[in-house]
Amino acid sequence: MDLPIVYHPDYVAPLPLGHRFPMAKFRCLYERLLGDRVAIADQFHCPELPPIAWIQQIHAPDYVQAYCQGTLDPKALRRIGLPWSRALARRTCIAVGGTVLTARLALQTGLACNTAGGTHHAFPSYGSGFCIFNDLAIAARTLQALGLANKILIVDLDVHQGDGTAVIFADDASVFTFSMHCEVNFPGTKQQSDLDVPLPIGMEDEAYLQTLASFLPDLLAQVRPDLVLYDAGVDPHLSDRLGKLALTDTGLYRREMQVLSTCVGAGFPIACVIGGGYADDIEALVYRHSLLHRAASTIYQQYRL
C-alpha cells in the first residue's frame, strides 16, 4: 500500500491576471508528484464538498453564508486578500473537505497528506491573510463530532503564527495548538496558542531543527493525541518573499523527516497540509511543497504503514 494523498482539480481556482497568490501551485504540485514518480495516480483520493454544518462548527453562520453567496462586504474581502468568485468559494469548501479526508485517512493508515490546506489565519467570524475558512480547526472538530478522535494536537510550522487556530481553541483543552513561527512577521498582533515558539529573523537550518527537536517529542508525550494535524508551510525558506527565516531546501526536507518520523515512530497518526509558500519562481515553490510528500513517502515505506 502507498501513502494516501488528497487532491481535487478544484483546488485551482482562477484569480485575476497579475494577482500574486500562486493558485496554480496546487495543480503544479499534483503534476510534479506524478512527474517525479513521488506518487502514482492510484494514490490520490478526491474529496467531496463538505456539509455546510461542518464549516459552521467553527465559523459563524452569517459569515459562512455571506462568503459562499458572494455578499461579504469589501472591507472583509480586503482583509482576506483574495477577490471573491464562485470558483474560489467552491475551491475553499473543497479544500476543507480535503483536510477532513486527509485526517480520516491518517487515522486509518497512520500517515496521509493533502496537496492544499493550512488556512490558519481564518477566525470564527472573518477571514484574514489569504485564509477564508480554517480547515485545520474544522477537521479537528469534525473528527471529534464523528467520534473518530478525542484529543488532537495541531503542529503549525508555517512561518506565520496560527492566530486564527489559537483563538478558536483558546478555551478547548481537547485541541492543543503549537505554533513555531517568526516573531517579527504577520500577524502584527499575535494570539496565544497553547504553546508558541517565536523565532528570530534569519534563523537557519541547524538552529531551527534543534529548536523543533527540543519541543516536539516532549509535546507528544505530554498531549498523547489521537491525531496530529501538521501544517507544513514552506514559507520559512530563505527565498520566500513573506518569510524572514533562512531555511534551505535541505533544511525543509530534514524538518519534514523529523516531524513525521517523530510522530509515526511514537505511534501517533499524522495528517499533513501544505500551508503557506510565496515565491515568484513557481517551479521552485512547488518543489519545496513536494518535499513534504517526498518525506512522507519515505516514512510510509520505512514504517511499513
Question: Could you please describe the fold and organization of this structure?
Answer:
With 305 residues, the protein is an alpha/beta fold. The chain has a single domain, classed as 3-Layer(aba) Sandwich (Arginase, Chain A), CATH 3.40.800. The chain is built from eleven helices and eight strands. It has helices at 25-35, 52-56, 61-69, 74-80, 86-109, 135-145, 163-168, 205-213, 216-223, 249-265, 282-302; strands at 5-6, 44-45, 111-114, 152-156, 175-182, 195-199, 227-231, 270-273. The chain has an eight-stranded parallel sheet with strand order 2-1-3-8-7-4-5-6, with helices on both faces. Strand 4 (152-156), helix 7 and strand 5 form a beta-alpha-beta unit. Helix 8 (205-213) packs parallel to helix 10 (249-265) and helix 10 packs parallel to helix 11 (282-302). It is globular and about 50 Å long. It starts with a strand and ends with a helix. The model has no long low-confidence stretch (mean pLDDT 96).
Q: In short, what is this structure?
A:
The protein has 305 residues and is α/β, with parallel strands linked by helices.
Largest sheet, strands/sense/barrel: 8 strands, parallel
Fraction in helix: 40-55%
Oligomeric form: single chain
What's the end-to-end separation, in Å? Answer: 8 Å
pLDDT below 50 for ≥5 consecutive residues: which ranges? none
* CATH topology group: Arginase, Chain A
Number of domains: 1
Biggest sheet: strands side by side, in what order?
2-1-3-8-7-4-5-6
Average pLDDT for all residues:
96
Order of secondary-structure elements? EHEHHHHEHEHEEHHEHEH
Range of strand content: 5-15%
Question: What is the CA-based Rg, rounded?
Answer: 17 Å
Q: Given the structure, what is the number of helices? A: 11
Structural class: alpha/beta
Question: Considering the protein shown, what is the CATH homologous superfamily?
Answer: Histone deacetylase domain
What characteristic shape results from the CA principal axes?
globular
CATH class, anyone? Alpha Beta
